[in-house]
Amino acid sequence: MAFTKHVLFVFLTYWLVLQITTSFLEAAPEASLIKSLPGFNGTFPSKHYSGYVTLDTKPAKNLFYYFIESERNPTKDPVVLWLNGGPGCSSFDGFVYEHGPFNFEKGKNEGDLPILHLNPFSWSKVSNIIYLDSPSGVGFSYPKLETGDLQTANDTHAFLLKWFKLYPEFQPNQFYITGESYAGIYIPTLIDAIDKGKEVGVKPGINLKGYMIGNGVCDDYYDGDNAFVPFAHGMGLISESLYKEAYKICRGDFENKDRECQLIIRELYNVTSGLNIYNILEPCYHGNGNSVGAKNMTGLPASFRELGKTNKPLPVRNRMFGRAWPYRAPVRDGLVPTWAQLTDSLKRDRNSVVPCYNDEVATRYLTDKDVRKALHVSPEAEEWIICADPFRYYHNAGSMLPYHKNLTAKGYRTLIYSGDHDMCVPFTGSEAWTASLGLKIVDEWRSWESDSQIAGRQVLPEYKPSESLHFYDSWLQRNKI
Ligand SMILES: *[C@@H]1O[C@H](CO)[C@@H](O)[C@H](O)[C@H]1NC(C)=O
Ligand SMILES: *[C@@H]1O[C@H](CO)[C@@H](O)[C@H](O)[C@H]1NC(C)=O
Ligand SMILES: *[C@@H]1O[C@H](CO)[C@@H](O)[C@H](O)[C@H]1NC(C)=O
Ligand SMILES: *[C@@H]1O[C@H](CO)[C@@H](O)[C@H](O)[C@H]1NC(C)=O
Ligand SMILES: *[C@@H]1O[C@H](CO)[C@@H](O)[C@H](O)[C@H]1NC(C)=O
Description:
Blueprint: H1 2-27, E1 48-55, E2 61-68, E3 79-83, H2 92-97, E4 102-105, E5 115-118, E6 128-132, E7 147-148, H3 149-166, E8 175-180, H4 183-199, E9 208-214, H5 220-223, H6 225-234, H7 240-249, H8 259-272, H9 302-307, E10 334-336, H10 339-350, H11 360-366, H12 369-374, E11 393-395, H13 401-409, E12 413-417, H14 427-436, E13 449-450, E14 453-454, H15 465-476
Parallel strand pairs: 3-6, 3-8, 7-11, 8-9, 9-12
Antiparallel strand pairs: 1-2, 2-6, 4-5, 10-11, 13-14
Helix pairs in contact: 3-4, 6-14, 7-8
The chain binds 2-acetamido-2-deoxy-beta-D-glucopyranose (5 copies).
Enzyme class: hydrolase
Subcellular location: Secreted
GO molecular function: acyltransferase activity, transferring groups other than amino-acyl groups; serine-type carboxypeptidase activity
């Protein structure tokens, strides 16, 4: 009898395991599985899915996502949602140029499809990650509709509820939301929507643990000239005497609207114009593949120039359109200007442009008809463009400070990180607004290490991929960064 029991036990265990494994495998929508990708010759290190979640709105909104299972342990690793900013920029920006599973090598001849290599620093090494094109009208999501912060937060919440129904095996995993730039607005408003949903018990439950924002927009006062001027001064981009004069004239508040103050601020912008605002150490490129540095960077000490180098095995691109909010254009309440309008008005009024752009690798790849097919893109979706334009979008959620206050008080874990050479949303602003929250300091300001190197001078995941994977994983695993 004991023997039979044992066999039965083994059989039951086997059967259970089999059931669990099969249900694990079968739960994800098979039709969304990506079997191959043009330009990629290798084996997928984990499962990749892509497709749409259709919201029950009128008209229906079809939100496009690309989901990658963790290459380490999909069952245990957290699920992370990634959002690029804009508003209006596709999250394929992060996928192609920052921490996605592939490095895109430009085709040999003009017009050739890029070649895909596995990215050794992909964030899918340590997490399950969803790249979402949001709001509707961005990237492969459609149709294009007028929207704003609060509606977008609601829609993305609705997306997540449906997504977790499609992939129920991931419901127990810890869930985090992360992104850059204008996602500094998307994320707190979305967390708030999810949190409100939890309070009224919407199903399925989302195991939300926290959020991470890189060079994010937060608040007019802190992110505007009060961030830019101390940044330019601290980085040695403007002279001590000019800084002191500006400080005096503006009486310590560079957002001061007095004419005299505005004039000197204008001068400061003139002095710093031509730099690559997203990474002041990188050369600046101007349209048409014309890659002449506007400022000759040899004026900087050699150690500074070295910092701009990347350990990505393939060349990084020379543009960051949707990466960060263009500087001198603080996010104000109301209709957010389109990128075209911004570019024009910046040129006209501020002797400044949205520079350094060239997204040809992503554009060549994602507008290819075989790639669209392999990614399950609907024929109804418009041709892929990195930042949807024109796009009527309203900033109607105000400052993010009250959101951060409430959400951190509720126990959501938060990581606010900045590339210290980003002049667009400079770290000085993030440092000032986070300090304004008045939180208790549990770990004093210090440098952090990656590979036994001081890595605190981190730029962006694009420029420091291995360090960014390191801090990303440490933070998700609740280890000291
Ligand atoms: C694809 O793999 C085959 C066989 O390994 C190789 O001959 C070919 O050159 C590869 N193509 C590319 C584009 O890497
Ligand atoms: C968002 O959802 C909440 C709760 O369902 C609702 O009360 C609110 O009106 C919605 N807001 C928008 C802008 O759709
Ligand atoms: C900007 O600087 C240049 C010289 O570098 C000068 O000719 C020009 O007048 C300045 N413009 C403003 C608006 O200060
Ligand atoms: C930058 O300046 C150095 C030294 O003044 C010069 O040799 C070099 O040609 C300049 N490069 C460019 C691209 O102007
Ligand atoms: C923050 O919490 C306070 C107190 O509950 C509430 O009055 C306020 O509306 C909340 N603000 C946001 C943006 O959630």
